[in-house]
């Protein structure tokens, strides 16, 4: 899946570009057998975290997905932009989300990188430790 059929036109806002990137990542993950649980989960209040996509893998693993879109790889690409601070915010949001569940499923943190027209799915890109 190396194309973006829902690519916004010229002059698109950052939000429109981000939404289109998330839609592309979602389609890619669904094609790999994952099911959408929730999109754009945010913790309440300022300074919290957000998770772009929460998916369930066929084996029952809950997958917290960060989507990174970059037009080019000249500055390290999308994977390099998931800093330690960003990881902490995603982990915080995941912990907040998990408080709602009665039993904790296995979990992992993935990153889907959209660099130009390339989709790269990095499974278990980081962990909560």
Automatic annotation (TrEMBL):
It holds the Pfam family UPF0102. The keyword Nuclease applies. One of its GO terms (molecular function) is endonuclease activity. It comes from the Bacteria. Keywords: Endonuclease, Hydrolase, Nuclease. Belongs to the UPF0102 family. This is UPF0102 protein J2X15_002074. It comes from Rhodoferax saidenbachensis.
């Amino acid at each position: 899946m190396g194309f973006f059929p829902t690519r916004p036109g010229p002059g698109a806002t950052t939000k429109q570009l981000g939404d289109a990137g998330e839609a592309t990542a979602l389609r890619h993950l669904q094609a790999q057998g994952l099911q959408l649980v929730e999109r754009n989960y945010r913790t309440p209040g300022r300074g919290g975290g957000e998770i772009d996509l929460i998916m369930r893998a066929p084996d029952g693993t809950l997958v917290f997905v960060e989507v990174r879109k970059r037009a080019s790889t000249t500055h390290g690409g999308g994977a390099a932009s998931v800093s330690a601070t960003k990881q902490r915010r995603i982990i915080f949001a995941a912990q907040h989300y998990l408080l709602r569940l009665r039993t904790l499923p296995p979990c992992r943190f993935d990153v889907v990188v959209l660099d130009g027209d390339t989709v790269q799915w990095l499974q278990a890109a980081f962990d909560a430790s």
